[in-house]
Design a protein that fits this description.
The protein has helices spanning 73-83, 115-118, 136-140, 157-170, 172-177, 201-214, 233-241, 255-259; strands at 9-11, 19-26, 34-41, 44-52, 59-68, 93-99, 102-107, 122-124, 181-186, 192-198, 224-227, 246-249, 266-269. With 271 residues, it is of the alpha/beta class. The strands form 3 sheets. The chain has a 6-stranded mixed beta sheet, with helices on one face. The longest helix has 14 residues, at 157-170. It is flat. The N and C termini lie far apart (39 Å).
């Protein structure tokens, strides 16, 4: 797999902070409302586009606009393209160009992406990573079929229960704002390996997976994915795309991803 640290990244704008200060009116039961300055998480659109085709006939296609917390936009774009089955692997990437709320991933000339999938433009909100998909079949065909192999070895219960406090301790933006999702990767002994925060839970997972792809770590078969909220369908699907076998979530698991016949994930949640 290619080392993405060698891929040219061309910044064309300043990276916005994930936190901003705004005036708010604080209301309590003990005193009259007062005007204060409060730190809140930033939510802005990111337009993800793809450049592909032979050198003499390059094409650029807008793939998605996702509402996200600025920061690690390269990780987000790469993770999104991988988990949507648009990007086959790291070797396919030729260059990445970022601007203010825009990012373009350029593929090598010999890479032919799935044009039908590219033409399914959709808007992804921070609360729903599958909003805008054109059909149920579009949801089902993203995740690859299970190929079998050894099941993930069991993880001790005390290790799983120890993960949420570690996640909370590392959530720097949540500590400041009190309003942000997070996802983290841990090894089987409970050591935190990587963490990402975002206003959208699916974005946090995409950022994790995109970073792991750049670090040549996929498939992530020997890690635990911890989610700060519920383990919904889209997150189970993204985990499957990255080869993740165990998910721990601070919230319950809906029925559909758990009963999905091709679901290779071992679920666990903390209620």
């Amino acid at each position: 797999m290619a080392n993405l640290s060698t891929i040219p990244t061309v910044p064309t704008g300043d990276m916005a902070s994930g936190v901003t200060l705004i005036p708010v009116q604080k209301i309590t039961s003990q005193a009259a409302p007062v005007l204060i300055t409060d730190a809140v998480a930033v939510e802005e659109p990111l337009e993800i586009s793809l450049e592909y085709g032979p050198a003499a006939a390059r094409r650029q296609q807008n793939v998605s606009v996702t509402m996200r917390t600025p920061g690690q936009d390269t990780d987000l774009a790469i993770g999104f393209l991988l988990t949507e089955a648009i990007l086959p692997n790291a070797q396919a990437i030729k260059a990445i160009t970022s601007g203010y709320n825009t990012i373009k991933v350029s593929l090598h000339e010999n890479i032919a992406p799935d044009i039908d999938r590219l033409q399914r433009h959709f808007y992804t909100s921070s609360s729903c990573g599958v909003c805008g998909k054109s059909s149920i079949e579009a949801l089902r065909t993203v995740a690859p079929a299970t190929t079998g192999g050894k099941e993930a070895p069991p993880v001790e219960a005390h290790i799983l229960h120890g993960l949420p406090p570690m996640l909370r301790q590392e959530q720097s933006i949540f500590e400041t704002t009190g309003g942000l999702h997070a996802a983290a990767l841990f090894n089987r002994t409970g050591m935190i390996l990587s963490l990402r925060e975002d206003i959208g839970r699916h974005n946090a997972v995409d950022k994790l997976i995109g970073r792991a792809l750049q670090d040549n770590l996929l498939p992530l078969t020997n890690v635990i994915l911890l989610l700060s909220g519920r383990a919904c369908f889209e997150l189970i699907q993204k985990a499957a795309m990255a080869g993740i076998k165990i998910i721990a979530a601070i919230g319950p698991l809906p029925a559909w991803p758990y009963s999905w016949p091709t679901n290779p994930i071992s679920p666990w949640w903390d209620s």
